[in-house]
Amino acid sequence: MVCRETAPAPQPAPIAALYPNPADGEVLLTPNFDKAAAVSTSFQTTVYDGQGHLVIEPTAAQPTLRLRTATWQPGLYQVVIRQGQRVSRQQLSIQH
Q1: For 11, which DSSP code?
Q2: Is the pTM of this model over 0.85?
Q3: Distance CA 91, CA 41 (A)
Q4: Where are the domains of the chain?
Q5: What is the phi/psi pair of residue 81, to 5°?
Q6: What fold characterizes domain 16-94?
Q7: Rounded Cα distance, 96 and 86, in Å
Q8: Contact indicator for 84, 18 with CB cutoff of 8 Å
Q9: Which of 2, 16, 44, 92 would staple 77 via disulfide (CB 3.0–4.6 Å)?
C-alpha cells in the first residue's frame, strides 16, 4: 500500500484585513470584496472577547471600519466578518 500526501486545499482570502494587529488604540478593518462573486459589498462585523462574550457589533457607512480599542482589556479577540454567505474569523490581539 502506498501512502501519498496531498497538499492542503488553498484557503480563501480573508473577507477583510485587520491593521495593525496587535493593536493598541484602534484597528482598521478594510474589506477585501469579492468582485468576481455575485455578493453584496456590505458586510457585518462582530467582535468577541476571549471568553466568547460579545464586545461590539459596529456599523459603518464607509468601506473601512475603525474600531476604537483603547478601552478594551488586553488579550485576544475573535473578529467575525460576514459578507453574503461568506464568513471569516480572524484573531485580534490587543496590547496596551
Answers
A1: P
A2: no
A3: 22
A4: 16-94
A5: -120, 130
A6: Immunoglobulin-like (2.60.40)
A7: 32
A8: no
A9: 92
